[in-house]
Amino acid sequence: LPLNGPPPGYGWEECGMSASASRSFRTGVHRRDGFFGQAAYCAICGHCMLEEYLGVIQLCYILKDLSPLAWNRLKDLNWISPQANDGPRHDPRNGLALCLNHRDSFENYDCIIRYFPENRKFVLINYSDDPDLQEFHGKAIALDINDRDAPYPSLFILHEMRVRGFQPEQPLDPAIPDNITWQDWILSGGLVNQDLDTFSHDPQSMPPIQST
Predict the structure, then answer these.
(1) For residue range 76-131, what is the model confidence (pLDDT) as tens digits?
(2) The whole model's pTM is what?
(3) For residues 136 and 129, what is the distance between their CA atoms, to the nearest angstrom?
(4) Whether 48 contacts 42, CB under 8 Å
(5) Of the chain's two ends, which shows fewer C-beta atoms within 10 Å, N or C?
(6) Which residues, listed in sequence order, are joined to residue 58 by a DSSP beta bridge?
C-alpha cells in the first residue's frame, strides 16, 4: 500500500469525513442506511424489512476478515482515520446494510462498489457480468459521503483489489456510463434531493403513499 495514504480523492480527510465515528458499528449502520425513520435499506436494491429478525436485511463488513493488526496498520498509513473505532468490527465505516442476495454478491467478490470523487457517489460495478446485477451496474447506490458515518472510500479500493484477484479473466476497465445516475429505486422513492444530492432520514419528509 502507498505509505502516505490512499490515492488522491479517496482519503478520509479529502472527503470531509470526521476523525471518529459517531456510534458503534450496529447502531451507526442502522442510522446511516435507514431512511424516513425506518429500518435499514439494502444499499444496492433498496429492499427494506422492518422485521429485521427475519434476516432479510443484514449488516456486513466491507473487509470481512480484516484483522485488528491490519486495521491498525491502515490507521498508521492514514488509509483510515487514526481515531477510527478499535477494530474493524466496531466501526460503522467498515459496514454496509445489504439484502441476502447482494451480501452474497459482495462477499463472494462478484461486484465492486467504487467511490467516484468527482461525483461524490458510490457506484455499483457488475465486475463478474452477473445477469442479476446488471440492472444496478454503473449507478450510484444509497450511501452518502456527507454522512458522519459514511464508509471509508479507501476500504472499497482494497475490496476491489480482492475482486480483481478472484476474477482475473474480467476486463481491467469495465464499461461505466459517463453520466452517473442514482439507482432507479432511489429516485422513484424520493430518497434523495436531486438539487442538493442529499439523502433524507427524516420521517416527516417521507413522500406520500400513492393510492392504487
Answers:
(1) 999 999 999 989 999 999 999 999 999 999 999 999 999 999 999 999 999 999 99
(2) 0.89
(3) 11
(4) yes
(5) C
(6) 98
User: Can you give the three-state secondary structure of the chain, one letter per residue?
Assistant: CCCCCCCCCCCCCCCCCCCCCCCCHHHHHHHHCECCCCCEECCCCCCECCCHHHCCEEEEECCCCCCHHHHHHHHHCCCCCCCCCCCCCCCHHHEEEEEHHHHHHHHCCCCEEEEECCCCEEEEECCCCCHHHHHHCCEECCCCCCCCCCCCHHHHHHHHHHHHHHCCCCCCCCCCCCCCEECHHHHHCCCEECCCCEECCCHHHCCCCCCC
End-to-end CA distance of the chain: 54
Range from 53-62, 91-100, 153-162, 198-207 carrying the lowest mean pLDDT: 198-207
Q: What does the block give as the cell for 134? A: 446488471
Q: Please report where in the chains the cell 456527507 appears, as a residue.
A: 146
